[in-house]
Design goal:
Order of helices and strands of chain A: HHHHHHHHHHH
Distance between the termini of chain B: 38 Å
Shape of chain A: elongated
Radius of gyration of chain B: 26 Å
Number of helices of chain B: 22
Oligomer: heterodimer
Distance between the termini of chain A: 24 Å
Largest sheet of chain A: none
Strand order of the largest sheet of chain B: 16-17-18-13-19-20-23-22
Largest sheet of chain B: 8 strands, mixed
Largest interface: A-B, 23 and 32 residues
Number of strands of chain A: 0
Strand content of chain A: under 5%
Number of helices of chain A: 11
Chain lengths: 301, 601
């Protein structure tokens, strides 16, 4: 599943300090190591892109197209082939990782954060504040996400960070709904009553006792969200309100080239595989984290 | 009916001599787990005669429920399976009968009722529909005929107004009524064997008495054999002809009920019987030494409750206006002195837990609560919290009241941390000593709640409640979920701690025997109000209110020789605490029947 990026990539370095054993436990799980490695490759590829490739991502090379003007398949010179304008696909994927990682992590993380906050607040306090928040969430759900994104992007100057913001503002609703339901059932549990009787403050109950129980859900939504956000960014780019060309992102590489899928399948396959690998990597790490952080699962395979 | 009872009783020896209805031979049930197969029932053999009641008794994890599921062919798949032995039903071997044949036997020849009448009825079908379905599956008959049979079945379990009830949905019936519907369904086809798995555990004690009596009468009429699975030795004494005591999947002892209670053969049975809380045992041992102190709180009370009222609004109608109110607690007043245990007793819905929650600050209330002389009235939230530090609570379900994601040491240290007491090191030392005090070891502090048994968890909850050195501990049904032997030990611990720390308890329970065991004073609640209050001896030796008498009478006595022949039944449902707005319930006035013994008129 790993996208062949560069031969001189060695095993990624991991943060040295073993903080409270979580790292150590992660490193005991083979699948988690695979996930971490994939993420590290993507991050390293994005940061070190200029060192890893001799080409410029936007350079349209004369020898990048056939005489008829068709893109080249993977070869020794262009490892992943070239795109419709004769640019090196491998280079574009490396540089595109910058955009896609920011979208996938920042935008998705922000969406998760907003959704969790809204959901927890509404689910724990309920009453008028819960009602107001949840009706607003329903309203956002009913509103076509793409239309909203187009409106927001039209009002604000398009840039990478604005796109991330727009995606976050569109994507938080589902998380909020799910977290709301879970929080409201957690808030009814007896141990929350028990916390209140020992005088625990509301923030303490919310962050020490309710949030940890929501982690599995948040992790699942977070990892699922990565591929959706990366693709949503591509959709926005396609509509001309996302990342502006010629800046590369995994999503817009797919969208630019999707009509040539039959003649030049590598143009869609490689960026698609990259998105898939990234989502899978986060999923593997997320799964492992969920098991490690849940004490009741300890000792099970 | 008594004549019929006579005849069955006289033919019983003959029936026992004839072939048994059901016979288990070397029954072994294994469960596949993470560490390979584990036997949950090992080499169990017994036989069941026609018309006989066999009680399988034991504490949780003894394999009694697994045995009943095995007979029904309902072992949880694919983890559990019958690894050895056979179950002979007539000339059939149930252990290797194909599912299609088993299905025909289930419900028709062998029926089962479960513990939770709430969850074993389908909430979206009327009870009539469900009973008729049970009948139609096994006997081809017209809809009209099935309906008639269903009405007969409901009448036979003494549900008043059976024809109208047929169209009711499960949520419209009380727990006791629902369990009767389950019994009606199980007996509608006159099965040879009825398996009842803890049929009265979820019911109130007065309802339990009625349901047990009903089972006994029906069995006498139909000649059905009954296998009763229970943990309650009182129920065993009340019902059993023969008893099997199980422990850890093995039969410990088997014999006639009278013999087992009179002369238990094994240590385990003796321990089990000794642990059962008995009424009227303590009364003879002690001769009213604490009477002078009990006369109207002489020392400053730890907690005083005056005119406590808790009401919940119900919204209904088109605009969601408040149209009805639940009068959960109405004008309840009492006080608790230092070192004293006041018990609130009553059946589900009487408002005893709501009273506890109001005192602990978990539900809004009106009226006045004073802790240690400081009234909570008109205090700011922060001041109220400071006062409430002196009140701690132990909940019913030790599995639900500890955050499963925290280490137990941190959980016990949490109250100290919240109220900023001591340094990290001091807190840890204090938690360690609390652990030792409640009978756990300090090196268990780094474990998580799920690694402990129910009794151990309740000890953790007690340690947690003690951490702040409160003046009052509210124990809300705190021993109800525990096995009797564990229960006895936890009660003893609570008593010891009271002597040591001088803490007062507000003990909330539905179990009269436990209450008699632990209380200094008792208040009986009914429909949100106190109907009788006095010292333990006043209430238990001289119950004045009819409801109190009924409660005491309903407790099954763990001695088959004292078996009741008849239990007074209430044909009407218990009135509801839900009332229209502007129609508050009439307030009861308590008058003194002598020596501080308050009784409602």
């Amino acid at each position: 599943m790993t996208t062949p990026i560069s031969p001189d990539m060695s095993t990624p370095l991991l943060p040295a300090k073993p903080r409270s054993g979580i790292w150590r436990q992660l490193l005991k799980r083979r699948l988690a190591i695979l996930g971490l490695a994939l993420i590290a490759i993507a991050v390293a590829g994005a940061i070190l892109a200029p060192l890893l490739t001799p080409y410029d991502p936007n350079e349209q090379m004369f020898d990048g197209l056939t005489l008829e003007g068709a893109p080249l398949p993977p070869s020794e010179k262009f490892w992943l082939g070239t795109d419709l304008l004769g640019r090196d696909l491998a280079t574009r994927i490396l540089y595109g990782a910058r955009t896609s990682l920011i979208i996938g992590i920042v935008a998705n993380g922000a969406a998760l954060l907003i959704g969790a906050l809204v959901g927890i607040t509404a689910g724990y306090f309920r009453g008028w504040i819960g009602n107001a928040l949840m009706r607003f969430t329903d309203l956002m759900m009913a509103f076509p996400a793409l239309l909203l994104a187009i409106c927001l992007a039209a009002i604000l100057q398009p840039s990478l960070w604005i796109v991330a913001l727009v995606i976050a503002l569109v994507n938080w609703v589902q998380t909020a709904r799910v977290i709301y339901t879970e929080t409201s059932s957690l808030a009814e549990r007896e141990f929350i009553d028990a916390e209140r009787t020992i005088g625990a403050s509301t923030p303490r109950i919310l962050f020490r006792h309710i949030l940890p129980h929501l982690l599995p859900t948040l992790i699942v939504w977070g990892t699922l969200g990565i591929s959706t956000t990366v693709l949503l960014e591509a959709t926005l780019s396609y509509l001309g309100i996302g990342v502006q060309p010629p800046t590369a992102s995994w999503g817009n590489i797919i969208f630019e080239n999707q009509t040539y899928f039959q003649v030049a399948p590598w143009l869609v396959f490689f960026p698609g595989a990259a998105i898939l690998a990234l989502a899978l990597a986060f999923n593997l790490v997320g799964d492992a984290l969920r098991d490690i952080l849940d004490p009741t699962q300890r000792g099970r395979a | 009916m008594s004549a019929a009872g006579q005849t069955t009783a006289s033919t019983k020896p003959a029936a026992e001599a004839s072939a048994p209805v059901l016979e288990a031979i070397g029954l072994t049930i294994s469960v596949r787990g993470e560490e390979g197969e584990r036997e949950v029932v090992s080499d169990l053999s017994f036989s069941l005669a026609r018309g006989e009641t066999l009680c399988i008794a034991g504490e949780s994890g003894s394999g009694k429920s697994m045995t009943s599921l095995a007979i029904m062919g309902l072992l949880p798949q694919p983890a559990a399976h019958l690894s050895k032995g056979s179950i002979r039903f007539g000339n059939l071997d149930l252990s290797n009968l194909p599912e299609s044949q088993m299905r025909r036997i289930r419900g028709d020849r062998i029926a089962m009722i479960f513990q939770e009448p709430m969850t074993s009825l389908n909430p979206v079908l009327s009870i009539g529909r469900q009973i008729m379905e049970a009948i139609e599956v096994h006997t081809p008959m017209s809809r009209r005929e099935a309906r008639r049979r269903a009405i007969d079945a409901l009448k036979s379990v003494r549900i008043p107004d059976a024809e109208r009830r047929l169209d009711n949905y499960p949520h419209e019936l009380s727990g006791g009524m629902r369990q009767r519907v389950m019994i009606a369904m199980a007996l509608a086809l006159k099965p040879d064997i009825l398996i009842a798995d803890e049929p009265t555990t979820a019911l109130d004690v007065t309802v339990q008495g009625e349901v047990l009596e009903l089972l006994r009468d029906l069995q006498r009429e139909t000649g059905t054999s009954l296998i009763l699975i229970t943990h309650d030795m009182g129920v065993v004494a009340e019902m059993a002809d023969r008893v099997i005591i199980m422990r850890n999947g093995r039969m410990v002892e088997e014999g006639k009920a009278v013999d087992i209670f009179a002369s238990p053969q094994t240590d385990y049975t003796r321990e089990l019987l000794a642990a059962v809380p008995r009424m009227r045992v303590g009364a003879e041992a002690r001769q009213a030494p604490e009477d002078p102190q009990a006369s109207a709180g002489v020392p400053a009370p730890v907690a005083t409750v005056r005119g406590l009222q808790v009401r919940f609004d119900l919204h209904g109608g088109f605009f969601g206006r408040v149209d009805r109110r639940v009068h959960a607690v109405e004008s309840v007043s009492f006080s608790i002195a230092r070192d004293e245990t006041l018990s609130l007793v009553g059946e589900s819905g009487c408002g005893k837990s709501t009273t506890a929650k109001a005192i602990a600050g978990l539900v809004p209330y009106s009226g006045d609560i004073a802790i240690d002389g400081r009234s909570l009235h008109g205090l700011s939230a922060a001041e109220r919290n400071a006062v409430r530090r002196d009140v701690q609570m132990i909940f019913q379900d030790p599995y639900a009241s500890l955050d499963p994601r925290m280490r137990v040491g941190d959980l016990v240290a949490e109250p100290l941390l919240i109220h900023r007491i001591g340094s990290r090191e001091e807190r840890r030392n204090q938690v360690a000593s609390l652990f030792e005090r409640v009978g756990l070891s300090a090196d268990q502090m780094d474990r998580y709640p799920h690694e402990f048994s129910g009794g151990q968890r309740q000890r953790i909850c007690i340690a947690r409640a003690l951490a702040l050195k409160p003046k009052l501990i509210i124990a809300d049904e705190s021993v109800s979920a525990l096995d009797v032997s564990v229960q006895a030990r936890v009660l003893k611990l609570l008593k010891d701690l009271q002597r040591e720390f001088g803490v007062a308890y507000l003990f909330i329970s539905h179990d009269m025997a436990v209450v008699e065991n632990i209380s200094d004073r008792v208040a009986v609640m009914y429909l949100g109000q106190i109907v009788e209050m006095g010292t333990r001896d006043q209430v238990f030796s001289n119950p004045r209110h009819p409801y109190t008498r009924r409660l005491i009478e309903a407790v099954p006595v763990p001695d088959p020789k004292l078996r009741r022949t008849h239990f007074a039944r209430l044909d009407r449902e218990i009135p509801s605490a839900v009332r229209q707005v502007g129609d508050p319930p009439p307030l009861l006035h308590l008058h003194d029947a002598g020596g501080g013994h308050l009784v409602a008129q």
